Sequence to fold (79 residues):
Amino acid sequence: MENLEKYNNAFEQVFGAKAEELNDNYGKDTVDEWDSVHQLSLIAQFEESFDIMFDPEDIMEMTSYAKGKELLKKYEVEL
Fold:
């Protein structure tokens, strides 16, 4: 599975999102279900899928599909 597929799969599993819904506008301001529990679940999925550990500051910043892509670049994960 490619990294982008893993990334999208995390959103699909945590939020029940469909792949066609995922874009840079998908985030806490546009998704009613986005709360701290879902955000932590998303982080856990990323950490497991990409074998990384996020810094606490980065966990707090994980508030959208676009921001997640930025954060993964910081950890040298190419999507």
